[in-house]
Write a structure and sequence with these properties.
alpha/beta; 36% helix; elongated; binds zinc ion
């Protein structure tokens, strides 16, 4: 593992890469429901993950939707996308694997986004499969039901006790195997399936402000705030 000392060194590594796959789990996005428990429990006594589980969706949908709406509509996006846009325009950024569920990269016009845990913009009736927008969820009072058949409307996100779609996982691994750099933003590297991503990659680079004992398994690591780093990388003249 090589610790990158400054932003110039970081920029050199990224500049040298011809095909990059980005894995994002930056804290300001809307986290996937698998990984929120720890974050949420630090601030609250009860487990949000439990209320967002498959059991609650099917057996107590009222409680599920109360928590789901509170969770997905209580976030703001402050991400700086300019540098990543530049990389995509240069043809270097091939895929984005988003571990969050806000679908923000698609909204911002990025191509080839893999929403590993789904995204909140897609919702469907579990009975007749009619599709619904995020607005439908937002404006619906109480348990969200289909306007055709009264079936439950399920957000197309992977709930904590559901597994990631195999086809999405395969797509992600295929992209990573082809790339020469796996660039990870605040990604929990000891978490499944990230550990598999690391094994399948040619070169790994993590930007994070949290240190873990697993960091030694990476090729490069840059300890810094992700948003600040992306803003610095975006400047024409990069200074230490
Ligand atoms: Zn329906």
């Amino acid at each position: 593992m090589k610790k990158i000392k400054n932003i110039i060194e970081l920029k050199e590594i990224i500049d040298k890469s011809q095909s990059i796959v980005l894995v994002n789990k930056t804290k300001l996005g809307l986290s996937n429901l698998h990984m929120i428990e720890e974050e949420y429990n630090q601030a609250n006594k009860t487990s949000l993950k439990k209320f967002l589980s498959k059991q609650f969706f099917y057996n107590q949908p009222k409680i599920f939707f109360e928590n789901y709406k509170k969770y997905i509509f209580g976030n703001n996006f402050l991400f700086n996308f300019d540098y990543l846009k530049k990389l995509e325009k240069q043809g270097k950024l091939k895929n984005i694997i988003d571990l969050n569920i806000d679908g923000i990269f698609t909204l911002k016009g990025f191509n080839n986004v893999i929403q590993l845990y789904g995204d909140i913009h897609k919702n469907y009736c579990i009975k007749c499969h009619k599709e619904f927008s995020l607005n439908y969820i937002k404006e619906y009072i109480g348990t969200v039901r289909c306007d055709l058949c009264n079936g439950l409307v399920k957000p197309n996100v992977t709930l904590p006790n559901e597994i990631i779609l195999k086809s999405l996982l395969e797509k992600a691994l295929f992209a990573i195997e082809k790339a020469d750099l796996l660039l990870m933003l605040e990604t929990p590297i000891n978490n499944y399936p990230i550990s598999n991503f690391i094994i399948s990659s040619k070169k790994t680079l993590l930007i994070t402000d949290k240190r873990t004992s697993k960091d030694i398994y990476l090729d490069y690591i840059y300890y810094a705030d992700v948003l600040e780093t992306l803003a610095k990388l975006n400047k024409k003249e990069v200074r230490k």
